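Contributing new records

If you add data, match the layout below exactly. Sequence lines come first and carry their own label; structure lines follow with theirs. Keep one chain per record. Anything else will be rejected by the validation script.
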Amino acid sequence: MEKEESFSLEKGDANLELDDDGKPRRTGTWITASAHIITAVVGSGVLSLTWCLAQLGWVVGTTFLVVFAAISWFTCIMLADCYRSSLNGARNYNYMQAVKTNLGGLKYRFCGIAQYQTLVGVSIGYTITSSISMAAIKRSNCFHKYGHDKECHTLNTQYLIIFACIEIILSQIPDFHKLSFVSIVATIMSFAYSSIGIGLSIAKIAGGAHPNTSLWIPSRTDISKMDQMWNTFCAIGDIAFAYSFCAVLIEIQDTLKSSPPENKVMKTATTIGISASTSFYMLCGLLGYAAFGNDAPGNYLTGFGYYDPFWLIDIGNLCIVIHLIGAYQVIVQPIFAFVENWNRKKWPESEFANKRYTIGRFTINPFRLVWRTTYVILATLVAMIFPFFNDFLALIGSTTFWPLSVYFPIEMYISQAKVRRNSFTWIWLRLLSFVCLLVSLLAAVGSIRGLVVSVKTFKLFRSAS
């Protein structure tokens, strides 16, 4: 039987030298942390950025990309200092624990709701995106074989099931310590499909594409002013989703070696991760908008703005699937760890919760097997019920960007640094938080409205690409 009191996600073998908290020595570096961040950041959000630019125009769209990147970087730098307690240097193993240490119980509960809503929502979003990319591979080959005029629609359900089966197996990876290789592969894949999208956009522009683009928010004639307004809000939510990785930042930081100090290494990794991600976001979004203009598809590798070369489209979508397989695990590990640690504390004598069985090179825990399998199945069922790419991503981004990426980091910084109330720093930090709250609320309204409209015409379990 084994007892584990820590919420830590980074564990090694028992014979390794111990860290200052009595846990096996952590081995993470700025390289692995950067890989985890890029894996978490450059996900399905990049695929919708061309559509976002088409709703916002050159100036507004680019401004939101830069502003969200700057805010995410700034608040993550503050959040990195919350890994250790300012009083005694004790580690906070996860985001919720950092909030509890710095802000107390009530905000701790609010944080738990916001964080796990984010992680659950992102895992569902990744499931939706992966199935669409799998279906896009089949559609691409269909278009190549029968011509671009053929509809080539295919149901997504079978691909959702395939993705779920893969994640059920990978979900038995016990913790973040075992995910470094998965994250590195996923990072390579994210750069690969982003590069393919950039290359295809450049080729389309060089081929003489001259679509209609707008300097400011486009004035459309194909939809009503009200619909255009909702699409604008939804696009803002999509951009917010593209930077929603703060929920796992503390967990990633808990994988780092103690020397040099974790906060310094994490700040370096955060700067590298957000800089690299933003560079790709700008290239994908701006070049994609230049290639497609105001008629850009919702997902620029699966919406078939591109048809040829079909094999390159297939490779790009395959890279998306491989990346999201790994990104899914980075996102759900905190959920798994929280439930499993709570379960072990609640029933420390339970063999079902604590006993492990060795089968060859693999170690199986009955509770972990049942719980993680159940989670993947439930997330997949929700993805089948609400398979709406842009609106779903916008809802996740709009409802979680403010609390996790802005509010809690700012509040913890004010508490740790003992910022004097009504001082200049206190006022502008609170003003930043308030403005981000307003933007998030507008984006949430737009995404909810989009989901309501989509559900009216949707047939349950009959999602098609």
